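User: Hi! I have a protein structure encoded as tokens and I'd like to know what sequence might fold into it. I'm fairly new to this, so please keep things simple.
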């Protein structure tokens, strides 16, 4: 009985799985929209039946999804419209998802005179677009979406005829090559948004975006770009508003250390610039020249260690600055720079160790705005070792200071001992601190402005003499050295000397000279690395030389051993197998003498002696020492009249 129950349950589950894996063919329609699907459908006639395509129905939106056997539409939508679906002539939105279509024929979209939006996303078999595929809808199409496909390249005439296109979304494909002239061959003159995110683009040439003179948003996130040409963005320099770029810092391929100083020249309308995890290590005072209207800048996840002075002075409208997840170990003195509109500064996930009043001097002129009534400063996830009593006195107005994200562990340096006689309490009246305790936010002192002024020096001295600073492992000289440097720092315990040298942090025994000292130490580290490499190469060459010499000596020793063995055999000390060779030589010599006698040429004694000497010399070269003729040989030679 139990076996029958198990079998019945198995068949029931099998039926359920089959039912869930198959989609029944059919359409679900409203007065203006229709959505159709079916695993067994191989042509449009099987979906849009006469019950759906009545004469009175006028569709403005049609969705075809989960039709994997719909692989080819030789006649496109024109024949379908002529046969029964007259309402398709008013179609404005067409979506084709999860189909079996591999290529788009040139007449696929013929017969759709009012189409404005075409969505070809999630077609895993679609690998290419033929030239002129969208030409029949070029006079009306405004938006083309084709994400999550397998398209590898864009050829010159693929978008030909799309004169009114304003939005082109090609994200998450396999696009690695864009032919020159793709956006200038009768296409994209009015394009405002272009998305190429999630592809495999590595190099973009100066002529890649020629023709996009009205582009306002460009999305290049998720591409392993290796370099940026100085004239790459020039076709839309005067129109672009949003520029998004990103990669993966952990990826071994892609990214670049720096970019040309003139890259953003004349891009006066740009408001948002995102350059995330591109492995950028160097910035200059001219890096962002030309971005006079930039409001939001994100450099999150790069490899910046120290920011040069004047790096952001060309950004007078800057409101949000994200420097999180870099390798910065200090904040340089920017007291001479003014950023009155900067209302959000993210310094989380860096290597900041020492906070002073000059650390936030760039925020001294910041004024509240309706969007940011409080200045937002995030310093969470930093190995901070020392906070000076007046570290938060640079803020002008209320602040929201984030020490730790909500629900996260409170860092060891976030202490409230002696509250409100505490550096954090001097963030100012109306300010709040997030992450200082588990109960929620903490407010600053109402009299913080007065205590941060000249009359508050006694109060700050009292904090400095409290238990907060008695446990410091740093000497007064170390602290004074850090305070007097252009970039205050203190060495965190969890970083080794090699890691510190890579970050450009000088040791405690050396007075840092700002970026120059860090650069000098970095150059020294490189020299040491080159020396190590040179020693390794020298050792390798020496080892190869020893091996070659040993092989040559071994070869000579083998040859000498073989020669000695042959000589030993010739002296009779070897095997008797060599005797036939001697006999052959002797017989040959006898035959030569007989031939001379027959020809009437009798050898003289001197000739014989000379020949014997020559024979003796030959035998000596072959290693034979006993060259005297034997008795039997003497008798034979006498019988022939030789002797």
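Assistant: Happy to help. Inverse folding works backwards from shape to sequence: for each of the 643 positions I chose a residue that suits the local structure. Here it is:
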């Amino acid at each position: 009985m139990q076996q029958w129950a198990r079998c019945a349950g198995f068949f029931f589950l099998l039926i359920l799985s089959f039912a869930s894996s198959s989609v029944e063919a059919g359409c679900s329609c409203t007065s203006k929209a229709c959505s159709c699907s079916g695993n067994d459908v191989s042509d449009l006639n099987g979906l849009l039946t006469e019950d759906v395509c009545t004469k009175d129905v006028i569709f403005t939106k049609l969705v075809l999804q989960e039709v994997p056997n719909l692989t080819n539409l030789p006649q496109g939508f024109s024949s379908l419209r002529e046969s029964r679906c007259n309402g398709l002539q008013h179609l404005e939105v067409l979506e084709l998802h999860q189909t079996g279509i591999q290529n788009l024929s040139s007449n696929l979209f013929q017969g759709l005179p009012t189409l404005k939006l075409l969505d070809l996303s999630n077609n895993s078999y679609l690998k290419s677009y033929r030239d002129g595929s969208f030409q029949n809808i070029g006079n009306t199409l405004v938006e083309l979406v084709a994400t999550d496909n397998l398209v590898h390249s864009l050829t010159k005439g693929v978008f030909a005829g799309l004169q009114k296109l304003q939005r082109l979304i090609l994200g998450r494909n396999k696009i690695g090559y864009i032919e020159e002239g793709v956006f200038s061959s009768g296409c994209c003159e009015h394009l405002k948004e272009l998305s190429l995110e999630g592809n495999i683009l590595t190099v973009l040439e100066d002529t890649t975006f020629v023709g996009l003179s009205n582009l306002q948003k460009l999305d290049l996130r998720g591409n392993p770009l290796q370099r940026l040409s100085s004239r790459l963005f020039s076709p839309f320099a005067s129109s672009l508003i949003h520029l998004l770029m990103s990669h993966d810092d952990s990826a071994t391929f892609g990214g670049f250390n720096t970019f040309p100083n003139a890259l953003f020249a004349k891009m006066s309308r740009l408001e948002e610039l995102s350059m995330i995890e591109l492995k950028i290590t160097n910035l200059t005072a001219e890096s962002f020249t030309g971005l006079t209207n930039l409001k939001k800048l994100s450099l999150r996840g790069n490899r910046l260690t120290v920011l040069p002075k004047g790096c952001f002075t060309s950004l007078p409208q800057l409101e949000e600055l994200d420097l999180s997840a870099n390798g910065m170990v200090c904040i340089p003195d920017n007291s001479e720079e003014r950023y009155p509109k900067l209302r959000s500064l993210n310094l989380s996930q860096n290597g900041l160790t020492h906070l002073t009043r000059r650390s936030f001097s760039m925020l001294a002129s910041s004024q509240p705005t309706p969007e940011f009534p409080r200045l937002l400063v995030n310093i969470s996830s930093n190995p901070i070792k020392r906070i000076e009593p007046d570290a938060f006195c640079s803020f002008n107005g209320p602040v929201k200071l984030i020490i730790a994200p909500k629900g996260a562990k409170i860092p060891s340096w976030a202490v409230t001992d002696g509250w409100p006689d505490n550096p954090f309490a001097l963030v100012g009246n109306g300010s709040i601190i997030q992450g200082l305790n588990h109960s929620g936010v903490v407010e600053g002192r109402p009299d913080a402005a007065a205590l941060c002024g000249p009359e508050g020096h006694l109060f700050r001295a009292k904090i400095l003499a409290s238990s907060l600073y008695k446990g410091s492992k740093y000497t007064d000289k170390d602290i004074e050295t850090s305070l007097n440097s252009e970039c205050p720092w203190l060495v965190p315990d969890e970083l080794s000397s090699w890691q510190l040298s890579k970050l450009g942090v000088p040791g405690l025994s050396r007075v840092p000279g700002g970026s120059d000292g860090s650069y000098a130490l970095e150059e020294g580290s490189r020299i040491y690395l080159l020396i190590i490499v040179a020693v390794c190469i020298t050792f390798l060459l020496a080892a190869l030389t020893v091996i070659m010499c040993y092989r040559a000596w071994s070869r000579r020793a083998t040859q000498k051993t073989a020669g000695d063995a042959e000589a030993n055999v010739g002296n009779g000390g070897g095997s008797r197998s060599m005797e036939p060779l001697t006999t052959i030589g002797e017989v040959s010599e006898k035959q030569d003498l007989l031939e001379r006698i027959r020809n009437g040429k009798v050898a003289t004694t001197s000739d014989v002696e000379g020949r014997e000497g020559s024979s003796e010399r030959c035998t000596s070269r072959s290693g034979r020492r006993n060259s005297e003729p034997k008795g039997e040989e003497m008798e034979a030679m006498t019988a022939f009249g030789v002797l």
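A useful reference point when you look it over: The chain has a mean pLDDT of 81. Feel free to ask if any position seems puzzling.
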